[in-house]
Design a protein that fits this description.
Blueprint lengths: L2 E8 L8 E6 L12 H4 L15 H10 L6 E5 L9 H9 L4 E6 L4 H9 L5 E5 L7 H5 L5 H13 L4 E7 L6 H10 L5 E6 L19 H11 L5 E5 L3
Parallel strand pairs: 2-3, 3-4, 4-5, 5-6, 6-7, 7-8
Antiparallel strand pairs: 1-2
Helix pairs in contact: 4-6, 7-8
The structure holds iron/sulfur cluster (SF4).
The site of iron/sulfur cluster has 12 residues, from loops.
Length: 238
């Protein structure tokens, strides 16, 4: 398992908990609006942005030194579930008595299920990228949406503490999409609609020219989302 980054302290990422964030390297999607391009590429070769991998033993030394200050660890990416040894890695963190929040794009329901059954995860934040018929266009990879649907069902039916997250981009999403996406996660605990913010450091530099939705539109989307889930909020507003 390759660890591409570590945020030593976050008060925001894991609801109601103080956490460290571990970023795994590599992703099976290629969302053009991705804010973490340096974490997407799987090989060291493509990763020329000066990112140095963190050794597992150094990470555990750090975690052990912070046990009195941290409640948990967020495992984010990239996409952590592409690593077969993720359960083993998480188990070592759990053995330190820390909670685990997993960020995932939902493409590995089998691993998600076994992590939950083995009591290795405490909270899941799952991306919902688009309505099913638009997934390929948004994630830029051939994808079997049945896998994502399975993950959605798993989180909701098993009452796994969770939230869904969607980054909304004007050239990719509209109001009708929000309704369809809401239907796809009907009954979920929470859905956060993240305003896409153009920047110079996106996976596809063309996206840096796209103007973000304004706050009024984002609030309109959240109003639509509220019809389907318990809590829907727009994020990244001015
Ligand atoms: S946005 Fe997330 S799922 Fe998409 S390419 Fe980036 S890390 Fe992967």
């Amino acid at each position: 398992m390759k660890i591409g980054g570590l945020e030593k302290l976050s008060l925001l990422d894991y609801p109601e908990n103080i956490s460290a964030i571990v970023f795994t390297q590599g992703c099976n999607f290629r969302c053009k609006f991705c804010y973490n391009p340096m974490l997407v590429w799987p090989s060291d070769k493509k990763n020329k942005k000066g990112l140095s991998f963190i050794k597992e033993k150094d990470l555990f030394l750090f975690l052990k030194s912070r046990l009195n200050r941290l409640d948990g660890v967020v495992i984010s990416g990239g996409e952590p579930t592409i690593y077969k040894d993720l359960p083993e890695f998480i188990k070592k963190i759990k053995d330190l008595g820390l909670l685990i929040k997993l960020d995932t794009n939902g493409t590995n329901p089998e691993m998600l299920n076994s992590l939950w059954q083995e009591k290795l995860i405490d909270y899941v934040a799952m991306d919902l990228k688009a309505p099913w018929e638009k997934y390929l266009k948004v994630v830029n990879r051939k994808i079997d949406c049945r896998l994502i649907k399975k993950s959605v069902k798993l989180l909701i039916d098993n009452k796994i503490p969770h939230e869904f997250r969607s980054t909304l981009v004007p050239t990719l999403h509209d109001s009708e999409d929000i309704s369809k996406m809401g239907q796809a996660i009907k009954g979920a605990n929470a859905w956060y609609l993240q305003k896409f913010i153009p920047s110079d450091n996106l996976l596809d530099s063309e996206f840096s020219k796209i103007k973000a939705f304004n706050d009024r539109k984002m609030k309109e989307f959240a109003k639509i989302g509220k019809k389907y889930v318990k809590n829907c909020q727009a994020r990244g507003l001015n």
